[in-house]
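Lab notebook: predicted structure, single chain.

Context: the supervisor wants predicted structures on file for every construct in the current expression panel, including those that have not yet been purified. This is the next one on the list. No modifications to the sequence; it matches the entry in the shared construct table.
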Amino acid sequence: MKLTWLGHSGFRLEIENAVILIDPWLSGNPVFPEHQRGDAIRGATHILLTHGHGDHSGDTLSIAKELGIPVAGIYDLVNSWSNHQGIEGIGFNKGGTIDLGGAQVTMVNASHSSSLDGADGPIYAGHESGFMIAGEGHTIYVSGDTDIMADMEWMGEYHQPDIGILCAGGHFTMDMKRAAYAAKKYFDFKTVIPCHYKTFPLLEQSADALRAGLPGVQIIEPEVMKAIEL
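Prediction complete. Output recorded below exactly as produced.
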């Protein structure tokens, strides 16, 4: 299983028979090298979207159309895109599980917001979400954009993820200390990978506080376009 950071909250996950692009914001992403776009999307089989904000959904439609691959995510947004943008969509909702190339993907709750930019203001884009992705003997919790939630208690107990991909940049989401608190209180991760940080000066630039708060847990600070073997 390979995980490659695309910067911000974007990842390329190679798991089972799938190559899943999670929240692929490439164009205009200040930490993503544009000349590596081809490498980032090559062979992708699915796109998995946590919510509608542009720093997550930015390249979703263009990649889906270019590669002819389906977009999986919250029903309201994905169904609308299927009807009006001509893409293949796999719309589902919280508590639902879908099969993406052998990987079992369950949508879970997140605490944030979700919208698209419109000419007259924000446009409703369905609810924000996270995912539990099970495959190859692991369960990965992709938090999406969120703060600490009481829901994390049952999510950790029920799904028992061993890998956490956690938003941790602060200001818009949990910061490193809050992410460490959530991971320690509600989960039993063996590995934690922070995201939604370093992109802008407004966000946290280091995972030191996350590492300090989770002794004994492997903290991997990802490097853009450097594959991590899991």
